[in-house]
Amino acid sequence: MQKQIEAAKMQVTTTQSTIHSSNDGIGLAELSVKQAENNLEAAKLQLSYCTITAPTSGVISKKNVQKEQVVAIGQPLMAITNNQNIWVVANLKETQIEKLKVGQEAEIEVDAYEDKIFKGKIESFSQATGAKFSLLPADNVTGNFVKVTQRIPVKIILMDKNNTSHLRAGMSVAVKVNTEK
User: Fold this and answer.
1) Is the dihedral angle over the CA atoms 116, 117, 123, 126 positive or is it negative?
2) pTM of the prediction?
3) Domain ranges of the chain
4) CA atoms of 165 and 113, how far apart (whole Å)
5) SS3 category, 2
6) Does domain 85-177 bear CATH number 2.40.30.170?
7) pLDDT in tens, 119-142
8) Which residue in 48, 153, 171, 177 has its CB near the most CB atoms, within 10 A?
């Protein structure tokens, strides 16, 4: 009977040891699962970097990238011209903007399409002249001063979106604004 009790005690000790090592194994397995989940999230993040979406729909121009090319962060890939929201920036003389207001109607003649007149409305005026934003501003330090009429960029939104699909960025235009309304 004593031997049976000792054998049972040994069996209990062995079982407890097995339980502890099983608990340790479960803990290691849980850590492995968490590590695998973290690796999966990192892989998903890396995969998301493989797809580049455009900020707007439009027409691609000036493409600087080829299929399967590795690109660097911040590298310009292409230029996209938005063909949904088309506007004109008219560089008007500072003497011409006195009677202009936001919302006034404008007529735009595009040099490439002489027989067509586009309707638009003034959306905004630049906060400074074009010379203030130029890459190489004029520097009159010689003492000779010639008064130069400055140009103010005026943004005019085209109203008829359906008939503007053939217009392209950079085309030359002539703008007439109705100042009586």
Assistant:
1) positive
2) 0.60
3) 2-51, 52-82, 85-177
4) 13
5) helix
6) yes
7) 999 999 888 776 676 766 666 666
8) 177
